[in-house]
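Its record is set out here:
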Amino acid sequence: MIKKLTIFSILLVIAFSFSSCSTNENLVEPSVVNDLEEQLENEKEQVLSLQGEVEDMSGTVDNLTLEIGKKEEVITELENELAETIEKSGSSGNSNTLVSEAFEVMELIKNQDAAGLNLKVSPTRGLGFSPYQYVDTNEHIVFDQNNQIPNMFTDTTAYDWGEYDGSGEDISGEFASYYNEFVYDEEYINPHILGINTIVSSGNMINNIEDIYPNDEYVEFYFEGFDPQYAGMDWSSLTLVFEEVNGTYYLIEIVHGNWTI
């Protein structure tokens, strides 16, 4: 009987031991659960952050795609315009020379290189300045190639350049002041559209360049506008007029253009 009780007791102890081991294996510390939950939340936050970045990048890609489309349209317009101008002129060589000369002159104007610009000006006709696209030959100033152009950026002489559109007040002052307002007031070296012997801009002021210079050629550097709310009324342009003498182009007029009242 004692032996049976002993054996039974041993079996109970063994069974209890296995039960305890099994129970301990199923237990998980609360801190472990908290760590896993915290890690899960961090991963979720990172996923949300990455999703936000992807959405932002998608918006940027869409904007860039639209911008590329606009630029391609401008390029197409310029290519068509250039082809039409070349066809009208009957010679691609002359048009390319005119355009190249115009950009060289514009670079000199941008850099305020009076000495370099002086070499591009007609030695017989000088260089005229018109603040608006209606060239008033009775009032607009013409600089002499040798005496005035080389020193025009440092010249303190006050000139009467014409009248302001709308107010009728005199446009008066030294060349440096006129230059900032009616010559290089925009980055014309990088225009939206280039008009080669073609008037690009349009407004309520008469553009008489072709009437005043019927036997000469011109290039218009045109900006179609800057602020969408003005629907193109804030356009601006600078037209360079050249005379051609034995295959060489000489600058004879700088015409500023913008919307007028």
User: Anything to note?
Assistant: Helices lie at 2-26, 30-89, 92-110, 114-120, 175-182, 209-212. Confidence is low (pLDDT under 50) at residues 2-25, 89-93. Residues 50 and 56 are 10 Å apart (CA to CA).
